[in-house]
Amino acid sequence: MTIISRREFDQTKDRAIEAAADGPVFITDQGQPAYVLMTVDAYHRLSKQATSIGEAFYVPGIDEIEFDIPKLDDTGIKPVDLS
Question: Can you tell me the distance from the alpha carbon of 27 to that of 20, in angstroms, rounded to the nearest whole number?
Fold first, then answer.
């Protein structure tokens, strides 16, 4: 991992590109991380790892399981009367 300032990046882009071959290059703006320079291969590896919440909880075949939601009356629990 390499960290360079935006000013340094503007002056030495070639060095930053070479460093990106070894890992991400973090470019700071006023001392705070603002940009990341990386190879396309690294980006593709990183973006393939991201999953949606739906994909994270998906279980193959789950839609074939029958599940009847019990009615409130069947549980013996009575709704609260707020009147």
Answer: 11
